[in-house]
Amino acid sequence: xxxxxxxxxxxxxxxxxxxxxxxxxxxxxxxxxxxxxxxxxxxxxxxxxxxxxxxxxxxxxxxxxxxxxxxxxxxxxxxxxxxxxxxxxxxxxxxxxxxxxxxxxxxxxxxxxxxxxxxxxxxxxxxxxxxxxxxxxxxxxxxxxxxxxxxxxxxxxxxxxxxxxxxxxxxxxxxxxxxxxxxxxxxxxxxxxxxxx
Length: 197
Fold this sequence. Notes:
The chain is α/β, with parallel strands linked by helices. The protein is 41% helix and 14% strand. The chain has helices at residues 14-21, 38-51, 61-65, 76-95, 109-119, 133-139, 144-149, 182-190, and strands spanning 26-31, 56-60, 99-103, 124-130, 173-176. Strands 2-3-1-4-5 form a five-stranded parallel beta sheet, with helices on both faces. α2 (38-51) packs across α8 (182-190) and α4 packs parallel to α5.
């Protein structure tokens, strides 16, 4: 069975790819309630990095669930599988030298721990986009909170399904989107990027 998988020593190495790109592969993983600003920050940072000549890949909950994870619902088991698959994809992109901007609710500490274990401690930065349920409800960029109020969205995170904030001693970075505007939020996220050697 040891020869079932191809040997990877014949492939172009990660170091070679990063040298060619002039950047270090890594994953910024934005998590928080729906409407907290995860995707907005990731998209704005993506545009800024692209303009600066950086190679990026945005992985967003809505797009992934419409394709790769289209067969998953919102049960605890499906949420776990959703994050597992996304983390594996993020790991592949990071290994190819991409700066990956992932935005997923990732509601539990256990799911974040799983993402960190899959992607790797050195390659993953978890960023909590902090905003209260009330603030997200007021923003309601996708109209989800209005549907929740009408009882049309079951298992909604923050209402029917819990969301665990990071502990005080957590290594996760916090971007408080009620206190910071978009430009300041993007700047704080950008400062977390590791430059290539």
